[in-house]
Amino acid sequence: MTDTTEAPTIGAQGGKPPEETEHERQERVRADLEQRRPEQCRIMAMCNQKGGVGKTTTTINLAGSLAEHDRRILVLDGDPQCNLTEGFRVRPPGPDDLTQATVVLDALDPLPLVRETKVPGIYLLPASLDMAGLSSDLRDTGTGLTLYRIMLDKLRPYFDDILLDQRPALDLDTDAQLAGTDAAIIMTDVDEWAMKGLTRQLGQQRKVMARVQREEFDVIGLVIGRIQKPMGKFDATVYKMLQNHPTVRCLGEVPVRAADLKEARNKGLPVTHYPKTTRSDTADFFRGIAANAGLVTAA
Questions:
Q1: 161-166 vs 42-47, strand pairing mode
Q2: Does residue 26 contact residue 142 with C-beta atoms inside 8 Å?
């Protein structure tokens, strides 16, 4: 297995000079982001309160699909497990480093946290282990529901799209993350519990938006992951219900392609950018999701 590194070593935007200090890295990334300010940014929560439905996989590979269209993407790891961070082969901040939790709680400048990835146009804001107690810390502030929005609004001027990979939970940290986003893409799989998770997720989103008095939140659609065919009768019924959900349109599905996805991820790359898989049907599934969501125009 490939070890994570402090910064990408191949294919990154400009690379990292061996003698570069952390301060120099931060200034270089800031200068790079300042060169072009997108006209508009859309911040999307990648979510489902049920785990194991493909949120992180979809986030990584949807980002790759968007980057193919010359869009500047920030992937934001909202889960203390740090899977998204490590999926891009970036080492999470340590106990003596600036972390996302500190930036959120103290309303600090988030740009020093932003890392380059191996894919030009894709940047990462990493998670860290101290986020495990973030819900409690947010609750102690008395204004916890507003704090993620403050951080996200500071990042908004620099990116075309921000994909926020949420942990599988309904708690104050995930509520605060939702409150700072413009839209949601919900991941699910062909499973009765995932269906229930989808229903709970939609209900929680309505509650959060009511609490922050927002009406403009958009549920873009759902992605069905880990498809395996042929299906049994029960799974086929659940699958049909997901495809024809009464309130959330289906953006696409991702059949099980473990070899493609894991091999690309082990190199810190989306399937759209890994040479062995860039022309695969696996990569095309994610390109189709980006187009069906209206985030890009299909080629």
A1: parallel
A2: no
Radius of gyration of the chain, Cα coordinates, nearest whole angstrom: 18
Q: How many residues does the chain have?
A: 299
Rounded to whole angstroms, the Cα distance separating 216 from 214 reads: 6
Residues 6+ apart with CB under 8 A from 253: 223, 224, 225, 227, 285
Q: Any alpha helices (H) in the chain, and if so which ranges?
A: 22-34, 55-67, 83-87, 100-106, 134-141, 144-155, 172-179, 192-211, 233-243, 258-266, 281-292
Report whether 88 contacts 264 (CB < 8 A): no
The closest of 23, 11, 2 to 273, measured between CA atoms, is: 11
| Distance (Å, whole) CA 171 – CA 138 | 10
The one-letter code for the residue type at 91 is R
pLDDT in tens, the chain (299 residues): 444 544 443 344 555 556 789 999 999 999 999 999 999 999 999 999 888 888 999 999 999 999 999 999 999 999 999 999 999 999 999 989 999 999 999 999 999 999 999 999 999 999 999 999 999 999 999 999 999 999 999 999 999 999 999 999 999 999 999 999 999 999 999 988 877 888 999 999 999 999 999 989 999 999 998 888 888 999 999 999 999 999 999 999 988 776 899 999 999 999 999 999 999 999 999 999 999 999 998 76
C-alpha closest to that of 57 among 293, 289, 298: 289
